[in-house]
């Protein structure tokens, strides 16, 4: 099973980027005297950062976010400049949780958290049906005990 996050995540990220740029522009207008060199410079830099973020960074980051579930691993890849790949062994999964936030109610998405021994993986902005299907597939049918984790007959650590 392979999938990506919802396109509505990109919409939310772009709205938050626009709100941050508007707040910064208001702050520049409030702190610096109008129509001075520094006022113009900072407003132009704010606009440049907004354009680069909205039209380059966020779409490329969205393109690189995906998850892969196979028989042995759950893998989540994300990032643009710094690429991060997280893997969890399926037989080490303890439990899986679905999180619903006010944004997820608005966009019809859910966040899934996969807890394993010593770590957790968060996959945000999944479409609701896909998140529940992933929950059913990843929830362990038997508890995470030693025989399930180490399925070899003999262990070198004993």
How large is the radius of gyration? 22 Å
Count the helices. How many? 5
Write the element-wise H/E pattern from the N-terminal end onward: EHHEEEEHEEHH
Envelope shape: elongated
Tell me the number of structural domains. 2
The N- and C-terminal alpha carbons lie at a distance of 36 Å
Give the key terms:
single chain, 158 residues, 2 domains, 5 helices, 7 strands, elongated
Would you give an account of this structure?
The chain is of the alpha+beta class and 158 residues long. It folds into two domains: 2-63; 69-146, no CATH class. Helices cover 46% and strands 27% of the residues. The chain is built from five helices and seven strands. Strands 1-2-3-4 form a four-stranded antiparallel beta sheet. A three-stranded antiparallel beta sheet has the order 5-6-7. Helix 1 (7-31) packs antiparallel against helix 2 (37-63). The radius of gyration is 22 Å and the shape is elongated. The two termini are 36 Å apart. The model has no long low-confidence stretch (mean pLDDT 89).
Quick structural overview:
This protein has 158 residues and is of the alpha+beta class. It contains five helices and seven strands; from the N terminus they run βααββββαββαα. The strands form two sheets. Strands 1-2-3-4 form a four-stranded antiparallel sheet.
């Amino acid at each position: 099973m392979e999938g990506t996050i919802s396109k509505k995540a990109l919409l939310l990220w772009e709205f938050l980027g626009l709100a941050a740029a508007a707040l910064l522009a208001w702050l520049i207008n409030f702190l610096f005297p109008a129509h001075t060199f520094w006022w113009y410079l900072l407003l132009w830099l704010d606009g440049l950062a907004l354009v680069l973020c909205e039209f380059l960074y966020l779409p490329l980051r969205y393109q690189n976010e995906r998850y892969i579930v196979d028989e042995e691993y759950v893998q989540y890849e994300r990032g643009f400049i710094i690429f991060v790949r997280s893997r969890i062994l399926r037989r080490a999964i303890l439990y899986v949780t679905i999180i619903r936030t006010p944004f997820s109610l608005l966009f019809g998405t859910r966040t899934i958290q996969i807890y394993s021994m010593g770590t957790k993986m968060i996959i945000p902005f999944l479409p609701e049906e896909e998140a529940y299907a992933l929950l059913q597939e990843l929830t362990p049918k038997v508890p995470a005990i030693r025989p399930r984790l180490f399925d070899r007959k003999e262990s070198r650590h004993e």
